DNA sequence: AGCGGCGATACCTCCCCGGTATCGGACCAG
DNA sequence: CTGGTCCGATACCGGGGAGGTATCGCCGCT
């Protein structure tokens, strides 16, 4: 199976429409139709059911969509990492580390310092990205190693090492009645009147339904809370950056947030290994 | 990057010889040389250093070899799993479960029974394979789920669920001086005079250096021990099949062997999920 | 110098990929 | 029922690229 065929199939399977898929791929529709037919013939499997009401996936088609996306990510990763390895002038390519913007400030700084102090350390590019993007970046080779936060991020398919565990706190506007309590429970803060939990965007940029205000990043969120328009449950490390107008109260029974360092399991990069080792020694 | 180019490169990188690689690929040497050059041009990276003393990998080449092998496995997996999904007459494809021959008899039987009793259970093909092959079968799609034994098998890159933990015993010929001891330590059995540990074949069929007799499977090993030619440290479940001429003694400080069920992290197969659930309920 | 091993180059052929034009069936409006 | 529209399939053509054979160029060895 050729990469080209796989890309074509995935495009059609995602669009469920030959014309739009062809447009997205930058080719005409007839060669796309032919390529898919040929793929189906070679696999001996019907992948798409062409009905009068458009195209649907068969059982085999769903399997190929899922597995094919993973395979295409692996190929992209191979290409990207090779390119990066090649353009390193020293012969020792740098490492791309990705983490959520604003989430891991202090830990990240300590990690970078500790690693930089090691003999043979190479350049570390730090990439900050939105929520849920890290896994994709690690999978398709745009990053080599990531700081993830369980249970929010899925670590499926990566090797990981735990770095730090912390409880969660509820962040409230100053003066809220719950202020001053030593701790609260999830049930106390699940639905505070007038202070809904914010909604974060999905990966495709849309927002889930709900009452809370849509937010894109930490700063927006904290500002909304200070204005008395929202509340949020966040890892207790938010206390490291105190802010006027905000109060935090520990939530006793909120799930523990674990910061882990994650990397692709087949990675044999010396730099990634050294970075992980430095991280575990923190 | 096309699958064909990647396969060509991996062949050359493994053989470190254009002529042999071409032979293995079933093509002539010149088109292979050209394909590799073209790949290097497109990636903008020197992958191979052509010296007068043959071919060696550059830094970028090693990266592409490793990442490329993973990507090719992912593509093979996509193809195999799609084929299997298609040829299922019911529209509900069967599952291929792989485990080491002879290692997990009773647990496997219970698992298959428990799963078969569930509503909506599909056919489970059981594949038995040699040591260390399971990971590859799971990775390239010839199997969908595996029973692995930590710490012998690596579970890197798979989702896992622990099923069973057990200690290890040393297996000795009947009448050996250590027989009758309630337990022994690793240092007691590390090098028993006249009873060397056996050597298992590597993945390529060669044997590591050492004193012990080469063995290919459990039966051979137990027979050699009964003959007084070897000893071995094995999970305590070997006691489930008692055998004349053999005695087992627990090894107090041997690493615990954990049986886990493992599957590819992106699997969304209902059947695999149900199988895992049945396994955790055992 | 001669030879052998090995990768690169030159040149040819044919297949396959992509393009345009067109067809054929399903659904819809009237 | 008929014309129109939407959409995937088919027909046909041209060019690029994949693979083959023959040969070269370089290096190391005897």
UniProtKB/TrEMBL annotation, chains A, B:
This is Transcriptional regulator, LysR family. Belongs to the LysR transcriptional regulatory family. GO terms for molecular function: DNA binding; DNA-binding transcription factor activity. Keywords: DNA-binding, Transcription, Transcription regulation. Residues 1-58 form the HTH lysR-type domain. InterPro entries: LysR_HTH_N (IPR000847), LysR_subst-bd (IPR005119), WH-like_DNA-bd_sf (IPR036388), WH_DNA-bd_sf (IPR036390). One of its GO terms (cellular component) is protein-DNA complex.
């Amino acid at each position: 199976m050729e990469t080209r065929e796989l890309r074509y199939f995935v495009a059609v399977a995602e669009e469920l429409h030959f014309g739009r898929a062809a447009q997205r791929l930058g080719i005409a529709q007839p060669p796309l139709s032919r390529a898919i037919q040929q793929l189906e013939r070679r696999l001996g499997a019907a992948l798409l059911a062409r009905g009068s009401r458009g195209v649907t996936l068969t059982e085999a088609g769903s399997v190929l969509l899922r597995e094919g996306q993973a395979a295409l990510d692996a190929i992209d990763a191979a290409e990207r990492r090779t390119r990066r390895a090649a353009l390193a002038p020293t012969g020792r390519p740098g490492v791309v580390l990705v983490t959520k913007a604003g989430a891991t400030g202090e830990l990240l700084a300590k990690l970078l310092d500790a690693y930089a102090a090691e003999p043979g350390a190479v350049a570390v590019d730090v990439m900050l990205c939105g929520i849920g993007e890290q896994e994709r970046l690690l999978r398709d080779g745009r990053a080599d190693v990531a700081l993830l936060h369980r249970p929010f991020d899925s670590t499926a398919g990566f090797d990981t090492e735990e770095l730090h565990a912390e409880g969660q706190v509820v962040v409230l506007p100053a003066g809220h009645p719950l202020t001053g309590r030593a701790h609260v429970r999830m049930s106390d803060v699940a639905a505070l009147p007038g202070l809904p939990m914010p909604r974060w965007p999905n990966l495709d940029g849309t927002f889930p339904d709900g009452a809370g205000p849509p937010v894109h990043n930490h700063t927006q969120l904290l500002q909304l809370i200070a204005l008395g328009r929202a509340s949020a449950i966040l890892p207790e490390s938010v206390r490291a950056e105190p802010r006027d107008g905000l109060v935090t109260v520990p939530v006793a029974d909120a799930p523990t947030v674990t910061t882990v360092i994650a990397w692709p399991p087949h990675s044999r990069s010396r730099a990634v290994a050294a970075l992980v080792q430095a991280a575990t020694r923190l």
